[in-house]
């Protein structure tokens, strides 16, 4: 039995760690035993746990938890990339958010992580041509989490959305891998054209709280957008932009700003929260 558990842990160390944390959480706080068991310990995989958690949060009088859970289970079974992305997102939250001390926190309590996983199910539905169901999930994610991501938008993995309130990501937006953003960020459009009208955020970008990135522009890899900025033009890679409208104010200052979460310019000017 020990050898079997070791083999499982090696195959899926993220899920193994979550289960270990959950078992300790029940010991530390028995009153949460029901929640922890139903959300984590009752399930054989992270995918099944995510399907349960997402469906429970999004269920309403209009759509039952059972139907939503069947949809989510189908999505995870049909596309293994969803589970891989979820693990990358979870690790990103743990590594970048100093308020996150355990993997299970993001799964159980963090609406940014939960909203992104629900979006991933909606995006799968969109790709399958089931647009109305995708729109329904988008609506519920917006109502429940305060996060509005169009199901047609393309979002990479290793995404961390801290606090997550009032996030808006438009239909033709593209977000790369290992991107971090704070609350009240908008990736919006300009005009009414039906083609590409939203921004492309390349890998490793850090976007500060309240920043607005508008139109068919590109924020280059490993760049930083200061809090409260309004970005209307392309941002070169590894630069920092700030202001309304945003202008280049210096280099990014590190190779991976989205991982370091450093919101300072030259150690003095605050760019983030």
UniProtKB/TrEMBL annotation:
Enzyme nomenclature, EC number: 2.3.1.30
PROSITE patterns recorded: HEXAPEP_TRANSFERASES
Domain Serine acetyltransferase N-terminal stretches: 14-118
InterPro entries named in the record: Hexapep (IPR001451), Hexapep_transf_CS (IPR018357), LbH_SAT (IPR045304), Ser_AcTrfase_N (IPR010493), Ser_AcTrfase_N_sf (IPR042122), Ser_O-AcTrfase (IPR005881), Serine_acetyltransferase (IPR053376), Trimer_LpxA-like_sf (IPR011004)
Family matches, as SMART domains: SATase_N
EC class: transferase
Cross-referenced Pfam families: Hexapep, SATase_N
CDD domains listed in its UniProt record: LbH_SAT
Catalyzed reactions per annotation: L-serine + acetyl-CoA = O-acetyl-L-serine + CoA
Keywords (A to Z) from UniProt: Acyltransferase, Amino-acid biosynthesis, Repeat, Transferase
Pathway assigned in UniProt: Amino-acid biosynthesis; L-cysteine biosynthesis; L-cysteine from L-serine: step 1/2
Gene3D superfamilies noted in UniProt: Hexapeptide repeat proteins, serine acetyltransferase, domain 1
GO molecular-function terms, A-Z: serine O-acetyltransferase activity
Family: Belongs to the transferase hexapeptide repeat family.
NCBIfam families: cysE, EPS_EpsC
Record protein name field: Serine acetyltransferase
Organism of origin: Psychromarinibacter halotolerans
Name of the gene: cysE
């Amino acid at each position: 039995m020990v050898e079997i558990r070791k083999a499982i842990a090696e195959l899926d160390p993220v899920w193994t760690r979550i289960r270990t944390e959950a078992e300790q959480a029940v010991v530390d706080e028995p009153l949460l035993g029901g929640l922890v068991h139903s959300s984590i310990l009752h399930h054989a995989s992270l995918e099944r746990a995510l399907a349960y958690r997402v469906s429970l949060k999004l269920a309403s009088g209009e759509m039952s938890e059972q139907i939503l859970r069947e949809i989510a289970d189908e999505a995870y079974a049909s596309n293994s990339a969803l589970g891989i992305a979820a693990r990358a997102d979870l690790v990103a939250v743990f590594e970048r958010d100093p308020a996150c001390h355990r993997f299970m926190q993001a799964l159980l309590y963090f609406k940014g992580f939960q909203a992104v996983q629900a979006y991933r199910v909606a995006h799968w539905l969109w790709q399958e041509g089931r647009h109305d169901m995708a729109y329904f999930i988008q609506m519920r994610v917006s109502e429940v989490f305060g996060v509005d991501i169009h199901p047609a938008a393309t979002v990479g993995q290793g995404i961390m959305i801290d606090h997550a309130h009032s996030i808006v990501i438009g239909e033709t937006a593209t977000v790369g891998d290992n991107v971090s953003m704070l609350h009240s960020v908008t990736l919006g459009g300009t005009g009414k054209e039906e083609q590409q009208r939203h921004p492309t955020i390349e890998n490793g970008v850090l976007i500060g709280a309240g920043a607005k990135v508008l139109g068919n522009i590109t924020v280059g890899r490993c760049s930083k957008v200061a809090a409260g900025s309004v970005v209307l033009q392309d941002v070169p890679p590894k630069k920092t932009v700030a202001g309304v409208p945003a202008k280049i104010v210096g280099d990014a200052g590190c190779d991976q700003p989205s991982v370091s979460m450093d919101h300072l310019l030259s150690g003095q000017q605050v760019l983030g929260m």
